[in-house]
Amino acid sequence: MKARVFVSLKTTVLDPQGQAVRAALAGLGYAAISEVRQGKFFDLTIADGTSREKARTDVETVAQEVLANPVIEEYQVELLD
To answer: What does the alpha-carbon distance between residue 54 and residue 62 come to, in Å, rounded to a whole number?
Structure first.
């Protein structure tokens, strides 16, 4: 089983990298794109034999405690088959 964790800045946090990308896109003629928010993702491989519930619990804990800074970031977990 695999899991993917998406981490992005909270909407209340300024995103200078996203703003720079948006400005560059506007300069390239993509004026219809009005906002860009950047983020990152992590692909995790779960050991064979691990239950789906245990995998979700462990990945949620890792995301909250290690992969994301809860002060400025939010995360989303997907379990992939």
So the answer is: 12
SS3 content of the chain, % helix, strand, coil (to 5): 35, 30, 35
Q: Which of 64, 54, 57, 55 is nearest to 3 (CA)?
A: 55
Nearest to 43 by CA among 4, 74, 1: 4
Encode pLDDT of 54-63 as tens digits.
Answer: 999 999 999 9
For the stretch 30-44, pLDDT in tens is 999 999 999 999 999
CA–CA separation, 42 and 24 (whole Å): 26
CA dist 9 and 32 (Å) reads: 22
First to last CA, the chain: 5
